[in-house]
């Protein structure tokens, strides 16, 4: 009788351990999913910032070229040429 109760107690403890482990596995998976989501959002944000930076640089270069062209067109003849 004691042997049967001992085995029953072992099985009960094993089931409790498995239930606890399943909770921890679930929580670990949830945290990993959350970290992956945050990483994707951070990556998307950095790509957006990079694109914005390239756009600002390109616009600045366009404005500089336009200013040089206006200066060349508006300058008196011969001033802009090196001949």
Explain this structure.
- This protein is mainly alpha-helical.
- It has a domain at 22-71.
- It is built from one helix and no strands.
- The protein has one helix at residues 2-74.
- The longest helix has 73 residues, at 2-74.
Which labels suit this protein?
single chain, 83 residues, mainly alpha, 1 helix, 0% strand, rod-shaped
Topology:
Elements lengths: L1 H73 L9
Radius of gyration: 35 Å
Binned, the helix content reads: over 70%
- Overall form: rod-shaped
Structural class, by secondary structure, is mainly alpha
- Total strands: the figure is 0
- Provide the succession of SSEs: H
- Termini separation comes to 115 Å
Summarize the entry for a quick read.
The protein is mainly α. The chain has a domain at 22-71. It is 88% helix and 0% strand.
């Amino acid at each position: 009788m004691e042997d049967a109760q001992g085995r029953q107690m072992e099985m009960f403890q094993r089931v409790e351990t498995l239930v606890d482990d399943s909770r921890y596995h679930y929580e670990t998976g949830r945290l990993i999913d959350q970290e992956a989501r945050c990483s994707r959002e951070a990556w998307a944000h950095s790509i957006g910032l990079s694109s914005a930076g390239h756009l600002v640089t390109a616009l600045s270069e366009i404005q500089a070229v336009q200013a040089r062209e206006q200066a060349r067109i508006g300058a008196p003849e011969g001033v802009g040429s090196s001949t």
